[in-house]
Amino acid sequence: MSVAIGFADRDVVQYSRSFPGGRLRRDTVVIERPLKIEVNESSYTLLRTPGADRELCVGFLFTEGLIEKLGDILILRQCPDSADSLTVKVSDTREKPSRSMLITSSCGLCGREDIEAMVDALGRVESSLQVSPEMMYRLPETVRARQELFDLTGGAHASAFFDEDGNILGVKEDVGRHNALDKLIGQAIMQELPMNSSGVFLSGRTSLEMIVKAARARIPVVAAVGAPTEIAAEAAERLGITLCGFLRDQRLSVYTHGWRIRENV
Fold it and tell me: Annotated catalytic, 79?
């Protein structure tokens, strides 16, 4: 039985848990709360870990095709009565997005033809970025050292940008792996950080949704601790993205566009 005893901070909550033998331990549990985003006449609700909400909002609007650049956002403000609500006004002079809230692991698109049309509309990612396997092997440990929320809870995903030398350009955590990536992309957009010359490291698996987000941001390399799905690998191949999985324990599986993984000579 778990009994709530209060909040540790905005990101976690403390629980007291009983174990066999009558022992008690205070456990820290990651928080998941809805964030409501009002965009012009539309409303979206994301389940996320509070924190970096503006970055999450910007990244979400961008990867969903609701904005093309930061300048498309005319107003972004937090509701004075709720920390879990944002009001956004975006320019209405742009073309309609090719997709919006259609790709999720729970519902997906209506059919394969719709998915193929959406992928084709994104266009291929062109980048000369190349990285070495030796550098890639270091990424899990390097990023893991900066996963503070995971250290506290064991319940948070991470996304991180890295350059060709393995320098970490940013790390974001969230209970949702797609949110962590949106937070990271949103931060890059707000700070004008390069994405086309960077790779992204994911702490979980790679689904089609993650590849779509990477393609929107023109990220050429996606490397994940876990496995990709079949359709994610197919999309990465068509979009020109180098997709790597099982990046752990000094091993690496390369599924698409392996020319970006160069061997040291």
Answer: no
According to the model, what pLDDT value does residue 114 have? 79
Q: What is the pLDDT of residues 28-49, one digit of tens each?
A: 889 999 999 999 989 999 999 9
pLDDT of residue 116: 86
Q: Does domain 133-260 have CATH number 3.40.50.1450?
A: no
Catalytic residue among 57, 107, 110, 244: 107
- Angle (CA) 4 29 63, round 5°: 130
In the chain, where the domains are located:
1-31, 33-109, 133-260
Q: Please give the helix or strand (H or E) that residue 189 lies within, else none.
A: helix 177-191
Architecture field, domain 33-109:
Roll (3.10)
Prediction pTM value: 0.88
Residue 27 confidence class, pLDDT cut points 50, 70, 90: confident
d(CA 128, CA 39): 36
